[in-house]
Write a structure and sequence with these properties.
The protein has helices at about 40-45, 60-75, 85-95, 130-135, 150-155, 170-180, 225-235, 280-290, and strands at about 5-10, 25-30, 45-55, 60, 100-110, 120-125, 140-145, 185-190, 200-205, 210-215, 240, 255-260, 265-270, 275. By secondary structure, it is α+β, with helices and mostly antiparallel strands. A hairpin with a 2-residue loop joins strand 13 (about 265-270) and strand 14. The mean pLDDT is about 95. The structure holds pyridoxal-5'-phosphate.
Length: about 290
């Protein structure tokens, strides 16, 4: 049982060293209003976040998530998060998670307009039930993301490598996928390369080789993809990154969308192309992803 909860955080400077940050945390009622109407996260989606999977009270891959939070904050010119402070907040949040799967969200917002500090908070909620997606698989459609593969180098202000709170486009892509009779989407660049899903990374298997789009600044580097690669490499598989033309999707022997809370969802169809679900390997990946990982 997971108790919905929220913890407001007064962010301290990244260089501040101390053993206890308790006086910078305040529990909030998860069902009650907690933000100012001037809050820029709600007005403009101006902030960054992380979603951490929790299994039986164990928060998974905390450091990779915190490192990506720091990376996102840098890209957005937000004050650098104090890793030790956020780690303590995650420990408190994980204490509210009982048996089963839950999700801890970290949110760092630019704060209130003309306000003194960024606003930061952590929430805890039970995870949705993804057991069917993990076994039966999901159907996906490819959707044009509307920019080319190397746009991040030319236009860093698009913040493409940052996990920003502005997910309206990602949610619109999911709705479009549903309208087209699919469960999810894979974004393609305007010059025809594979990017990522709206809320997940894509891994393809071609023969015995696993490949995922190179994180060149235009997509998020998924913590789950990194973790899956570590596991596959330990099992002796060849894993790598590449610029993947959309035409290669039809050559894949199997594919998965992977992310921190849904974990590994095998892809059973890409547009009109049916893909076999590798039930044994998928079960192995999800068993690994559900085991305690640091
Ligand atoms: N790409 C996008 C756009 C995402 O939103 C997410 C997760 O939410 C991912 C990839 C996968 O990241 P992770 O495996 O760290 O959850």
């Amino acid at each position: 049982m997971t108790r919905r909860s929220a913890l407001m955080i007064i962010p301290v400077d990244a260089s501040e060293e101390r053993a206890d940050f308790a006086d910078t945390f305040a529990r909030a009622d998860a069902a009650a209003p907690a933000l100012s109407v001037g809050e820029l996260s709600t007005q403009r989606g101006d902030g960054v976040f992380e979603s951490i999977g929790v299994v039986d009270g164990h928060a998974q891959e905390v450091m990779p998530h915190l490192e990506r939070l720091v990376h996102s904050a840098r890209l957005c010119d937000l004050p650098e998060p104090n890793i030790a402070q956020w780690k303590q907040a995650i420990e408190i949040a994980a204490g509210d998670c009982g048996a089963g799967e839950a999700v801890i969200k970290l949110i760092l917002s630019r704060g209130v307009e003309h306000g003194p500090t960024p606003t930061a908070w952590v929430t805890v909620a039970p995870a949705a039930d993804f057991s069917a997606a993990r076994v039966d698989g999901i159907r996906v459609v490819t959707l044009d993301r509307g920019y080319d593969l190397h746009v991040a180098e030319r236009a860093p202000w698009l913040l493409l490598g940052a996990k920003t709170l502005s997910y309206a486009v990602n949610m619109a892509a999911l709705r479009e996928a549903h309208r087209r009779g699919a469960d999810d989407a894979i974004f393609l660049s305007s010059d025809g390369f594979v990017l990522e899903a709206p809320t997940a990374s894509l891994i393809l298997r071609v023969g015995d080789r696993f490949v995922t789009p190179a994180p060149n600044g235009g997509i998020l580097h998924g913590t789950t993809q990194l973790s899956v690669y570590e596991h596959l490499a330990e099992r002796g598989f060849d894993v790598g990154y590449a610029e993947i033309p959309a035409s290669d999707l039809g050559k894949a022997d199997a594919a998965w969308l992977v992310s921190s809370v849904r974990l590994a969802a095998p892809v059973s169809r890409i547009d009109d192309h049916e893909l076999p679900v590798d039930a044994a390997l998928t079960a192995d990946l999800n068993a690994y992803l559900l085991s305690p990982r640091d």
